[in-house]
Amino acid sequence: MTDTQKFDRADTRVREDEGLAGAARAFFDRVRSGDLGMLPVILGLFVIAVVFTSLNPVFMRPQNLTNLLFDAAAVGLISLGVIFCLMLGEIDLSIGSMSGVASAILGVLWVNVGVPWPLAILAALAAGAITGAIYASLLNRFGMPSFVSTLAGLLALLGLQLYLLGNSGSINLPFQSFLIRFGQILVMPGWLSYLLAVVPGAVILVFGAQNRRERAAANLSAPSSSVVIAKAVSLTAVLLIAVWYLNLGRGVPYMFVFFVLIIAGMEYVLTRTKFGRSIFAVGGNREAARRAGIKVERIRIYAFMICSTFAAAGGILAASRLASASRQAGTGDVNLNAIAAAVIGGTSLFGGRGSAWSAVLGVLVIQSISNGLTLLNLSSSLRYMILGAVLALAVIVDSLARQSRASHGRA
Amino acid sequence: MDGPSTDKELILKLSGVSKQFGAVTALDGIDMEVHKGEVVALVGDNGAGKSTLVKILAGVHAKTSGTVEFGGKEVEIGTPGRALELGIATVFQDLALCENLDVVANLFLGQEVNPWRLSEIEMEVRAWKLLGELAARIPSVREPIASLSGGQRQTVAIARSLLLDPEIIMLDEPTAALGVAQTAEVLNLIERVRDRGHGVILISHNMEDVRAVADRIVVLRLGRNNGTFGPDATQEELVSAITGATDNSVSRRAAKRRGDTVEEGAGS
Ligand SMILES: Nc1ncnc2c1ncn2[C@@H]1O[C@H](COP(=O)(O)OP(=O)(O)OP(=O)(O)O)[C@@H](O)[C@H]1O
Ligand SMILES: [Mg+2]
């Protein structure tokens, strides 16, 4: 052809998906081959919103949504952690207990011992990191499946939580402290939330333009600017509407924004660093990763440490939300909600596929369902059954999508 | 053990390397040398221990006994990372690629450019150039490996091994799944690598390919050395060394075919 032949357009069999129409076509191809991405979640959220609003209009009120976001941050952070384990094809079943232990450590050190709360938080996070390192060592040294070691850890940590809380069984955290206000009432001033809502779109535009320039300079094809602009504009529109709606009520909680920022950071780690690439590789084919010189054992240690540390962080947010550290913290459905959120968001239980964003989307689904069911005054027995069914559904979708990908040759 | 190229500098020397898998002795006292700018072909029947030897040198398996000298010093190749550090690159028979990652990610796995802010563009450009050298027919380097054909995967695995500009490259049946043009390209590439002064260990069941590029042919049989030949060795010599007998199924088959054609000729 011509001398402006792009490297990646040399093969005539590759369809050139130019412009918006091309992008749409590529998207439908991906979905049809089982690469569903965020589609099921967004559909799911839509259905949930319609159903619960029709059953109880309070569900869609801005106040309730703000509440929902406050609740989502804690489980979301735990879910973010477990994504790192799931990506390796491992699992951590003790994340709920870990969060409970973290809240107990916070309560005991802060209230009973009198340590300043930032130090107490550090201690709780360190406990998380150590727990994760233990699971990884059991796996590395003895080949103990994480399924078993973390199940044992679940019990051990639950015992530790009860031991730490002692006879009282629950410790109330000081209401006036920053931590508790962060977990219960602090919301952004309107202008700040609008400002932040514009940032992601701006980032997409700036980096998209930079990426296009660099790819053109390197003689590679680049996504057309109309696609980049369309993405940025639609995302900004959605965020602005959401922020406007939330500001009709109490506004956007700082805690949720904090959660989303951490998610963005971890998404960067997973997709743009050598460490993240290694996690995908180990999850996809452990032996191939080892032969490529990746230190599989070390990757596992980091992944389990990240997982348990985020579980501890989630426990701290949960404690600040409730203003107490209690025996019930982290028990019940916390464990499975966090894992379900990751899977619903699109992280595969089979390893090698996933993203940090799946924690945000998944946790919004899970929290909306439990919030909606609570508004309907359903007893927790029914809530558990319904959430269990949703989890099963998510795993079925994951398995079906995996089969479909395999038959379409897309890993 | 006197091949035609003993005058060149020795890179790799194995003496008495053995490997035991439980009760199975996969390798028993293997000696082998690889010099700079030399292609050593490793041939032998299925299960002769060729891949096992390659895996020991690649740090995948630990040897049971024996010594490996690299660049004049005795080395322990305990991990695949250590082998790569020494400059031993390998194309494994089972390829060892990550199906969930795209071609670029697989090529650069473990050697990513800029660990804290991956330079995707630089990696993609280098990937296209490397694949171009191999005359690869890969439509897109941003597709996951799962969507590639067997031969395309093999090309990716070969390209991967060239990335680090290794001292020695070991290819375990690299052309098994390749098309005509790609096989020729790989053979050319083996010659280019040799001309650059690197050592090559080539495993292949295709005697034509082996004789076309090898400077020395090392035969393994049931885990033992069974002779070293020059590229001018005849088919009969090689076959009998590989199968361990002059009267073997290959020669019987050849004789039978000759007999068949004679009979047919007589019949008509
Ligand atoms: N991981 C293992 N565990 C147990 N035995 C093994 C293992 N790997 C190889 N072996 C045995 O070692 C012997 C040599 O196998 P190897 O793969 O080296 O053969 P090969 O020469 O590469 O054969 P092919 O031409 O079929 O590739 C075989 O008998 C095989 O069964
Ligand atoms: Mg083999």
What do you see in this structure?
The complex is a heterodimer of chains A (411) and B (268). By secondary structure, chain A is mainly alpha-helical. Helices cover 73% and strands 1% of the residues of chain A. A two-stranded antiparallel sheet of chain A has the order 1-2. In chain A, helix 3 packs parallel to helix 10. The longest helix of chain A has 28 residues. Chain B is α/β, with parallel strands linked by helices. Chain B is 37% helix and 24% strand. Chain B starts with 9 loop residues before the first strand and ends with a helix. The chains are: A mainly alpha (411), B alpha/beta (268). At the A-B interface, helix 8, helix 11 and helix 12 of A face helix 2 and helix 4 of B. The structure holds adenosine-5'-triphosphate and magnesium ion (MG).
Provide a brief overview of the structure:
The complex is a heterodimer of chains A (411) and B (268). Chain A is mostly helical.
Question: Low-confidence parts of chain A lasting 5 or more residues at pLDDT below 50?
Answer: none
Helicity of chain B, in percent?
Answer: 25-40%
User: In the CATH classification, which architecture of the largest domain in chain A applies?
Assistant: Orthogonal Bundle
Distance between the termini of chain B: 51 Å
> By CATH's scheme, which homologous superfamily of the domain at 10-100 and 166-233 in chain B applies?
P-loop containing nucleotide triphosphate hydrolases
Q: Strands across the major sheet of chain B, in which order?
A: 6-7-8-3-9-10
Give the name of the CATH architecture of the domain at 10-100 and 166-233 in chain B. 3-Layer(aba) Sandwich
Main beta sheet of chain A: 2 strands, antiparallel
| CATH structural fold name of the domain at 10-100 and 166-233 in chain B | Rossmann fold
